[in-house]
Structure formats: C-alpha cells, structure tokens
Write a structure and sequence with these properties.
The chain is mostly helical. It has a single domain, classed as Orthogonal Bundle (MetI-like fold), CATH 1.10.3720. Helix content is about 80%, strand content about 0%. The chain is built from nine helices and no strands. The mean pLDDT is about 90.
Length: about 220
C-alpha cells in the first residue's frame, strides 16, 4: 500500500483545518476540565460533609454521569434541552457544557475518595486543637487530597480528553471533525487517521506537561 501524505500537506486548507481543529479540541477540553473540577469539588464537598438530601442528590448525579455514555449526554444536552427549554446555543457551547458535566462526574468521585482518605489521627489532632470544621477542611484535608489525588485527576483528565472527538458528531469543528472532512475530500483514510493519532498524542503530551508544571509550581513535588 502506498502512503500519500503529500495529498494532505500540500493543501494549505487542510493544514489550517487540522490546526484549527486541534486548537478547538485543546481549548474546549481545558475549559471543560476547569469547570468540571470546580463543580466536582462542590459535589465531593457535599458528600464528605454529609449534607442532608444534597448528599444523596450528589451521589445519584455522580453515579448517573459515570454510568451513561458521553454521546448520550452530549445528544441530550445538544438536542434535548433546547427543545425542552426553547433556547438556541452554538454547538460548541453544548459541547462545552456536556464535557464539563461529564468531567465533573469522574473528578467528583476521585476527590470524594481523597477527602475520605485523610488519616483519622490527623483529624483527631486538629479537633483537639479546637480547629473549626471549615479550617480543618481547608488547611488539612484539601491540600492533602489534591497532592494525593493529583496523579489520578491528571490521568482521568487526559483519558477524557481522548474521548472528546465525539463532539464532532454534533457539528463542532474539532480535530476529529477536521480529519473526517479531509478524508471525505481526499479518500486517504489511513493517512488522515495516522495524522489524527499523532496530533491527539501530541496534545495529550502537552496537557501532561502542563499538568506536571502546575503540580511542581503549586506543591513543589511533595508527596503525602
């Protein structure tokens, strides 16, 4: 079989589409990861403090998100919610909302397990010092949780990024969408998907490097 990559890179249009798609995939994932983490922190906090009713609602939400396919969540948010509530958003907004919700479900479970893993002796010592629950949570539980669970959060984030190509199904011009468009024009499927594989790998490595730098700058490489 003859590989004909030149049919792709000789066209400035195709190169631009791939770069634009990569930028869209990177930016939507980064924003969704940040928003998903914030919401996940809130959900994990509700479950840790055992807030009545809210704790059960948070647990049901997390289980539902973790046990339904992303594409079902995406289609419901992109096509179901606009019909129910009568609003119109750009497709990238639907994708961002769906990914944020999906990320939050996975991140929340990781954070919850981290909150619960704080050594009982440390909690008893903090209580003996007459520290408030809020102070214990902010100064003791949260820092240790973030340090211990950072590798799991980072790995989960990168894994979820690799599933984001599914947003092309609702018309978002991400990296997968760009590749499928080029494939439909050139009929060089093998070459196109080799390029997509390499580009997704490079973006994943970029995210990994950025997350490692954030960890080093924030925690100085400390381990609990």
């Amino acid at each position: 079989m003859e590989l004909r990559f030149f049919e792709l890179y000789r066209s400035s249009e195709y190169i631009y589409l791939l770069l634009e798609g990569a930028a869209v995939s990177f930016s939507i994932t980064a924003v969704a990861g940040f928003l998903g983490f914030l919401f996940a922190f809130f959900l994990a906090g509700l479950r840790y403090f055992e807030v009545p009713i809210a704790r059960s609602v948070a647990a049901i939400y997390v289980d539902f998100i973790r046990n339904t396919p992303l594409i079902v969540q995406l289609f419901f948010i992109a096509f179901g919610l606009p019909l129910l509530f009568g609003y119109v958003w750009p497709f990238w907004c639907h994708a961002l909302l769906a990914l944020s919700i999906n990320f939050s479900g996975y991140f929340a479970e990781i954070l919850r397990s981290g909150f619960s893993s704080t050594h009982k002796g440390q909690l008893e010592a903090a209580a003996a010092l007459n520290l408030s629950q809020a102070t214990i949570f902010k100064s003791l539980i949260v820092p240790q949780t973030l340090i211990k669970m950072y590798p799991s959060l980072s790995s989960q984030f990168i894994f979820l990024f690799l599933t984001t190509g599914i947003i092309s199904e609702i018309g978002v011009v991400d990296l997968t969408h760009a590749g499928l468009f080029i494939d439909s024009r050139t009929f060089r499927s093998f070459e196109v998907f080799i390029i997509l594989t390499v580009m997704y790998g490079l973006i994943a490595l970029t995210f990994k490097t950025i997350l490692q730098v954030i960890f080093q700058r924030t925690f100085g490489g400390r381990v609990v």
